[in-house]
Amino acid sequence: MTSRREETWRDLSVGGDRALVRRLGSATMSFAAGPAIGEPDRTHRLSMIGKAQPDELRSITHCRQVHGSTVHRIGGESGAIEMVGDGDGLVTDQPGRGLLIWTADCVPVLLATHGVVAAVHSGWRGSAADVVKVAVSVLVKGYGATPGDLHVALGPSVCGRCYRVGSEVPEALAPFGLDEHRWLSGDHVDLRGFLAARLEALGVAAENIETVGGCTVESPDLASFRRDGAAAGRQWSMVFLIP
Question: How far apart are CA 230 and CA 37, in angstroms?
Fold first, then answer.
């Protein structure tokens, strides 16, 4: 679904936010940076993102993220900005419908294949709830996607070096039976390493999974709850099909 000239991530300004943007066939993926501290009004930010891409982006849908495994199928008409309630994943085959999630250490997961895209928010609880499996299942059963054709980007998040955890985290992730060398080092967990291994176990080709952006804790321009607590901002990640 791609051509080589479409595979470069570009550092752009989108609605006043710096973002890494890539066009992948008929889809566009974006990972924004920051603000590291404090968070402007979300409705205003979403409006500015939409206005920055008026010919391609008709609406933006997001959800009230709860660290679970609910994935919403998005279709039909909507306003310029739509909140669909509690959930941690969004899927659509509607061109121009932006699917957006917010993060400040958790992993933003963007997926795309022929004519359908998805956005997922996955911290350790979402990973333990297997939200990526739910999203892949919706893509396969609801839209006829093939796991081997999926392209997945894992955006900026806390790295394993900075993510020291209690025993409850590896205990929750260990039952998946994934190679611990890829995600666990003592009491440190690499969530992107875990999710990459999990996606491969679900049939996604390893060469179609990429890690984009740095560690949220180590990068001063990225929002990190672990580093800054309640003062942390939020960055958005979004995917949409080009009309």
Answer: 9
d(CA 138, CA 73): 8
State how far the Cα of 106 lies from the Cα of 232, in Å rounded to an integer. 13
C-alpha radius of gyration, the chain, whole number: 17
**Could you tell me the pTM of the whole model?**
0.96
User: CATH no. for residue 117?
Assistant: 3.60.140.10
What is the residue-level pLDDT of the chain in tens, covering all 243 positions? 434 345 689 999 999 999 999 999 999 999 999 999 998 899 999 999 999 998 899 999 999 999 999 999 999 877 899 999 999 999 999 999 999 999 999 999 999 999 999 999 999 999 999 999 999 999 999 999 999 999 999 999 999 999 999 999 999 999 999 999 999 999 999 999 999 999 999 999 999 999 999 999 999 999 999 999 999 999 999 999 999
Q: Which of 138, 104, 105 is nearest to 119 (CA)?
A: 138
**Number of structural domains in the chain:** 1
Is 4 inside any structural domain?
A: no
